[in-house]
Amino acid sequence: MTITLIHAYSPEARGRSERLFGSWQKRLPQELRINNITTLEDANRYLKDVFIADYNSKFSVKPLEDETTFVPYMGRDLDDILCIQEERIVAKDNTISYKNKTLQIPANQHRYHYVKCQVMVHEYTNGNLAIFHGPRKIANENVA
Questions:
Q1: Phi/psi at 30 (nearest 5 deg)?
Q2: How far apart are CA 100 and CA 52, in angstroms?
Q3: Is the residue at 72 inside a domain?
Q4: Residue numbers of the domain that contains 100
Q5: Quick one: which of 138, 112, 142, 139 has its CA closest to 126?
Q6: What is the pLDDT of residue 7?
Q7: CA Rg value for the chain
Q8: Does 135 share its domain with 83?
Q9: Are residues 133 and 89 in the same domain?
Q10: Which secondary-structure segment (H or E) carries 16?
Q11: ∠21-24-29 over CA atoms, to 5°?
Q12: Beta bridge partners of 84
């Protein structure tokens, strides 16, 4: 699984945030002017103490349900998602090259070799490496 950036090029996709920014750009300078606020410190204080609370009381909408709509994640181990992932093609000697290292893929119960297969190298935050063929982890390298 990879995270891919999807650009919002249409106004419909950006509509709500664009309206919010438009409100701030039109409304906030006028309120600062009316309240004789000319310094950055006074503007920040006004935002924190007055503007945000007033804006939220006028424009926020109460949710239809009080309980949370979030559900616990029940999928793959997040360490296998939140890591550096790079594709490699397995060489004729059943190895891959990653950051000046040659990693041997051992034979396993599913395949004797992975020659010419596309695999994914996962580099975890602790420096450990793993090699995946599809959803299956086929090799590990632990940093000592």
A1: -70, -40
A2: 53
A3: no
A4: 78-141
A5: 142
A6: 66
A7: 26
A8: yes
A9: yes
A10: helix 11-34
A11: 140
A12: 123
How many Cα neighbours within 13 Å face the side chain of 17? Answer: 5
Dig out the tokens for 52 from the structure: 């945000």
pTM summary value: 0.53
Question: Using CA atoms, how far apart are residues 99 and 121, in angstroms rounded to an integer?
Answer: 11
Q: Mean pLDDT per segment of 10 residues, for the chain of length 144 residues?
A: 62 70 84 92 92 86 83 84 94 94 89 92 94 91 69
Residue 133 and residue 9: Cα distance in Å, rounded? 35
Strands 136-141 and 118-123: unpaired
| Measured distance CA(142)–CA(53) in Å, rounded | 51
Domain assignment of residue 6, yes or no: no
Q: What is the C-alpha separation between 28 and 25, in angstroms, rounded? A: 6
94 and 115 in contact (C-beta within 8 Å)? yes
